[in-house]
Amino acid sequence: MRIIDTHSHIYSEEFDNDIEDVINRAKKNGVEKILMPNIDISSIERIHHLSHKYEGYCIPMMGLHPTSVADNWESELATIKQLLPLKSYIAIGEIGMDLYWDKTFEKEQKFVFEEQLRWSIEYDLPVAIHSRDAIPQCIDCIKNIGEEELKGVFHSFGGTEQELNEILSLINFMIGINGVVTFKNSTLSTVLKNTDLSHIIIETDSPYLAPVPYRGKRNESSYTLNVVEKLAEIYNISADKVGEITTENAEKLFALKK
């Protein structure tokens, strides 16, 4: 089994007491790499620490999360931008728009997202997009900046068939599928049947969104196996084949075979 967890906050404090065990369980289940999106300046030290401790296995992204766009967004953005030429990051992320929790800074979120999309072009890096209740707005931003030059993933996809089609109509974008696909109230199983596995990469978004049978508990990278097994059921192919295809998708998107 080959799996890449393309989106994990494994550097968060929820893993401080057993990070070695978490890493070992992931490796045991076939997880070859864990990609780590940044949130804001408060998470930078943590993400760098883990990427150094597990160099080549826990690989960092850098970006400003939309829910961290607040009154101090300009200074946060400036600090993060200064880091980009100083370290090797796998992507610009986690970036995007979130209109679920609060729309106070919607205008600022859009500006910050588009600015970071420009960085992705400048540094030739893919983007990891957070788009909660904001898929159309994120797509508009991508088209504003230039979809031909951009590439990336709409992480934690849980949308409709129409939203899926709109995302996949973009030239170089995939969707990230996590534990949500295993939830009984999720429509993802039906939605995904209408698209090809070549558009999908695997993620956890840990410590959030643990798959069944771990729902409600802390998520971790080893649970990607449950996501793979659910996709194997949906597509009626072997779990090994799902792992191989989605891993190759991730390797291509994030240039992991440079």
Annotation keywords:
258 residues; alpha/beta; 5-stranded parallel sheet; 3-stranded parallel sheet; 9 helices; 12% strand
Task: Summarize this entry quickly.
With 258 residues, the protein is α/β, with parallel strands linked by helices. The protein has helices spanning 19-28, 41-53, 73-83, 106-122, 135-145, 161-168, 188-192, 224-235, 239-253, and strands at residues 3-5, 31-36, 58-60, 92-96, 127-130, 152-154, 173-177, 200-202.
Give your account of this protein's structure.
With 258 residues, the chain is of the alpha/beta class. The chain is built from nine helices and eight strands. It has a five-stranded parallel beta sheet with strand order 4-5-6-7-8. Helix 2 links the parallel strand 2 and strand 3. The longest helix is centred in the middle third of the chain and has 17 residues. The mean pLDDT is 97.
